[in-house]
Amino acid sequence: METSANRSRRIQITTKGPLRKQAIVPITKKYADLIMDKANVYVSFINGLLRNTKSNIRLEFIRLCPGGISIMTNNVPAPNDLNIIKKYFKSIDDINDDETLPL
Q: N or C: which end of the chain has fewer CB within 10 A?
């Protein structure tokens, strides 16, 4: 039989789903390193582009992941949002888009 003292010692755990959404960009380590060198600048520029298109998506940060980079956003990006992100990364001078960014 369970007493009230035993019930109060139980730990109640609740979990939520992920708070952020992400887009995985499979690219070579060479290009991932180029992007990571200026990731905070790219986040800022891309957010400006998304804001200009009246998108509700905002990039929060970019991080390395196995096989490329992970772009964390505040919500699930629509195909149009992904196209904006893809075009921006392809416009970076040192990136050869034949080898990268299949998004």
A: N
